[in-house]
Amino acid sequence: MYRVSPFVRHFAVALLAGAGAATLWVNTDPAGYYDAIEYRLLDLNLPGWLAPQGLSLTPLSLVSDGLMALFMAFIGKELWEALVLERGAMSGGRARAPLSAVIGGALGAVLLWVLTGALIETAIEAEFATGWPVPIGSDVVLGYLVGRRVFGPGHPALHLLLLITIGFDILGLVVMGLGDPEVTLRLVWLALPALASGGVWALVGRRPGPHATERDRRRGMALWPYVLAGIVSFIGVAASGLPPALGLLPVIPAIPHADRSFGLFAEAEEFLHDPLNRLAHLLVRPLALVLFLFGLTRGGIELAAFAPTTLTTLAALWIGKPLGVLAGLTVALAFLRARLPQGVAGRDLLLIAMVSGMGFTVPVVALDSALPGGGMTEAARLGLALSLLAGPLALLAARLLKR
């Protein structure tokens, strides 16, 4: 089995360190914490056709909407390679099982959120199904950190877990953008990322033909055209009303990549020199800082914020999502002729479902748009933090199942 690069563990440590510092700060000086993360760095008076609601840059928005686009591009690159490369983890019929798990888990989480919210009055300002997009997202780096302890490094179930959590994160961001009632979608702006992706592929990204010169090959290996296309794509996605964190994903298919897959976040990719992997290598060190800043600006947990919304969040993540993942995998195996990676047993699927009950990174981003704010938002944030206890529970279950 291939080795997963150690930088994924470093990402998890950076995220937890930022969230820990934020939690300490918000519980000792809440006013100072919120003043810091919501401080207006710059007010941009952009034309209405570009930004109808205006644009104010704060540390919170700069990290969540801007810098986190780099992280989503990083994990999106892994998902794209898993789909299209030889021996990719989702090539051929291998995509059916993780895709069914993602769809089932998302439906299960939303269903439990709605049912629990209907049975428990979460807040006076809450309407029916308020906040349903929150539990869809997951947490790739923390899920990997726990999954590595549960399954061991190199276990094929760990790689299936990574695929499922990546799918949850991307789906969570898409649903968050489409389900935000306060944002008017202007999908015509998506022509900009389409043009950026198609243009950079046609000009420099296509595989050189048999009559290509050495100059043509060197031009295809340059990184700056893809960076420029990424900036244009980011502007188009942000202007469309979708989450700006998705802004770099449309360009990924246009960037030349390796000929075969070495696995998700494989250590062997550090020795590859295609443009897609070189861009990923350049992002490794900055992303550790980005995730620390994300934890610092989004991960402040008010320990006294417990409320009915906390229970709704835990029910969706600990009950709805794992049951949905298991149901999706069952449907894929029984009716869609899905294939599991060799070496993955039935108990591994149960443990994958338990670990998927952890939700933090993308669900935290969804709080502001999905919930009315105030105590309800902080109660849900506390529920997301408590959901991470699914990790220790999965470790305990793994030991019991081994016995």
Number of helices: 15
Quantity of strands, as a count: 2
What fold name goes in the CATH topology slot?
Na+/H+ antiporter like fold
The proportion of residues in beta strands is under 5%
- Name of the CATH architecture: Up-down Bundle
Mean pLDDT: 88
Just give the CATH class: Mainly Alpha
In CATH, what is the homologous superfamily?
Na+/H+ antiporter like domain
Report on this model:
- By secondary structure, this protein is mostly helical.
- It has a single domain, classed as Na+/H+ antiporter like fold, CATH 1.20.1530.10.
- Helices cover 63% and strands 1% of the residues.
Outline:
With 403 residues, the chain is mainly α.
Fold blueprint:
Elements: H1 7-28, H2 30-37, E1 42-44, E2 55-57, H3 59-84, H4 96-119, H5 140-151, H6 156-179, H7 191-205, H8 214-221, H9 224-240, H10 275-298, H11 308-335, H12 346-355, H13 361-370, H14 375-387, H15 390-402
Antiparallel strand pairs: 1-2
Note the main attributes of this structure:
403 residues; mainly alpha; Na+/H+ antiporter like fold; two-stranded antiparallel sheet; 2 strands
